[in-house]
Amino acid sequence: MKDYDGIVFDLDGTLWDAAVATAMGWNAALAACGLPEHRVSAEDVRGVSGKPFRSCVEAILPGSVIESHPDVFVALNAYERSWVEAQGGRPYDGVVVGIERLSQHYPLFLVSNCQKWYLEVFWSLFGLQACFEDWDCHGASALGKPAMLADIIERHRLEAAIFVGDTQDDAQAAAAAGTDFGYAAYGFGHLGGSPLEFASFEALVEWFTSV
Fold it and tell me: Domain containing 23: what range?
């Protein structure tokens, strides 16, 4: 196994799944905006997960709805925050203990296209922030994942980092930043032919700590 000097994790579909709470928040927002006919499912959310908030909305809602209700972005963000803060999300099996274990062997980092408040909910629910040396999200820096990854690598002078994520966008971000990619096959995406993939988070932890 390659001697990595840092593991960078994606959030949604890699560490947890909060799609149910997000979908419920979005549906409440759409109803409040007079658009109850535009229902969003958890699977809809998972299908666009990994993109910045605005891109997720634009991928799910028809352009005509967005044009006629420009305030829908504000409503969706506010209601999603309320629901995610109230209900949280489900960490994948072994994540909480596994992150604590990995942090004893590697510097850990996190990058996500989520809103800043969303990441703060994740930190507050599971108390894992202390396990990570650094992090960034689109809601904090307005950067995309390739740029966030590149910044983390430069700031911490990483020479052999690996990015673990679950979507094709994550794989492309790793390639753009010049890092290896570990595919979280248990997550939201469906990649084929990834040279390094993990069927579960527990398997990921065992692979990285087996040396």
Answer: 19-87
Q: Residues near 104 by Cβ (< 8 Å), separated by ≥ 6?
A: none
In this structure, the answer to whether residues 12 and 31 fall within a common structural domain is no
51 and 101 both lie in a single domain? no
| DSSP assignments along 75-88, one per residue | HHHHHHHHHHHHH-
> How much of the chain is in helix, strand and coil states, percent to nearest 5?
50, 15, 35
197 C-beta neighbours (distance < 10 Å), count: 17
End-to-end CA distance of the chain: 8
pLDDT of residue 190: 82
Residue with tokens 């995309």: 144
Residue 1 lies in a domain: no
pLDDT interval class at 61 (50, 70, 90): confident
Same domain, 197 and 107: yes
The dihedral sign for the CA sequence 72, 76, 79, 81: negative
Residues 129 and 58 reside in one and the same domain: no
| DSSP alpha helix (H) spans, the chain | 19-32, 42-48, 53-60, 63-68, 72-87, 95-102, 116-126, 138-141, 145-155, 168-177, 201-209
Contact present, 132 and 110 (Cβ < 8 Å)? yes
Residues 81 and 106 in one domain: no
Residue 8 has pLDDT above 80, yes or no: yes
